[in-house]
Amino acid sequence: MLNYCSFSIEPLSHAVGGVIRGLDLTQEVDSRVLRDIQNAWFRYLVLVFEGQELTPGQQLNFARQLGRVVQYPMAQGLPNYPEIVPVVKLPHERRNFGGVWHSDTTYLPHPPSGTLLLARELPPSGGDTQFANMYLAYDALSDQTKQVINKLIVIQSSAKPRVAKGRSEKVQIGARAGDTELTAEHPVVRVHPITGKRALYVNPAHSVRFTTMTSIESEQLLNTLFEHQINPAFTGSYRWKKGAMVLWDNRCVQHYPLNDYHGYKRVMHRITIA
Ligand code: OGA
Ligand code: MN
């Protein structure tokens, strides 16, 4: 348990995440609380704010205190709140949104720093989200591998078959991107702009190939990294409560929503921050 001036935090696991209870986010938070939240975020990488049955407007106001809110290119938002995307799995559906380890929309030239997900409706059990700390994943690699990957650039794509298919079944495609492939090139090892630490930035949902390697060469190294980066030593898991709101840092964390609650509905409200 770590104490900040405005709240205390219970770690989610050894590797990643912290749970904050008793903060009132219905009102704008003052600068001291905001600073504590930001410091806690950079230390824990994933923050869980429990007991936040916020209105969409309140969720959006909180997100705006954290940074500039951006829209998700692949789905439409709520009618009155285009910045809030409902992430829904219905009882008859079999696929879930984002159902593979990933960092959000890494196929954009400027992927979102943070994602803020609020649990509106949950299955009676299951539907946990797992998180993995990409600083730890990078640090644990051998110097030899670090030397190789430090120089590599990876192509990230929105159209890797498993993910694209799952998404097109799950979301109403908005007018902005539709089914067209989006790709971006990013360093495999990224330096976090605030903490200055190095994080591994490939993920099985979107990373396709290294720019300076063939597909087959890339595939071998990518698969090794994909397997390595979700070692349980780097992960933590959150069992959702209704009204819990989770903020994760896409620059140094991956997440994986478990798809283990067929027959039940799960509804989350999602906002991304530039
Ligand atoms: C997302 C996502 C995780 C979840 O919203 O980006 O991957 O637990 N969702 O629904
Ligand atoms: Mn996601």
Task: Produce a short descriptive summary.
The chain is an alpha+beta fold and about 270 residues long.
Characterization of the model:
This protein is of the alpha+beta class. It has one domain (2-171, 179-273): Clavaminate synthase-like (Double-stranded beta-helix). It has six helices and 17 strands. It has helices at residues 31-44, 56-66, 134-139, 143-150, 161-170, 215-229; strands at 2-3, 8-11, 18-20, 46-49, 69-70, 85-89, 114-121, 129-133, 153-157, 183-187, 189-191, 198-200, 207-210, 235-238, 245-249, 253-257, 266-273. Strands 1, 2, 3, 4, 5, 6, 7, 15 and 17 form a nine-stranded mixed sheet that branches. It is globular, with a radius of gyration of 18 Å. The chain starts with a strand and ends with a strand. 38% of the residues are buried. Mean pLDDT is 94; it is low at 172-176. Bound molecules: N-oxalylglycine (OGA) and manganese (II) ion. The site of manganese (II) ion has 4 residues, from loops.
| Ligand roster | N-oxalylglycine, manganese (II) ion
CATH topology: Double-stranded beta-helix
Percent range of helical residues: 10-25%
Structural class: alpha+beta
Spans of at least 5 consecutive residues whose pLDDT stays below 50 are 172-176
The main pleated sheet reads as: 9 strands, mixed
Write the H/E string, N to C: EEEHEHEEEEHHEHEEEEHEEEE
Shape call: globular
The CATH class name reads Alpha Beta
Strand content: 25-35%
Mean pLDDT: 94
Radius of gyration: 18 Å
DSSP summary, beta strand count: 17
Please, how many domains?
Answer: 1
The CATH homologous superfamily is called Clavaminate synthase-like
Number of helices: 6
**What kind of oligomer do you see?**
single chain
CATH architecture: 4-Layer Sandwich
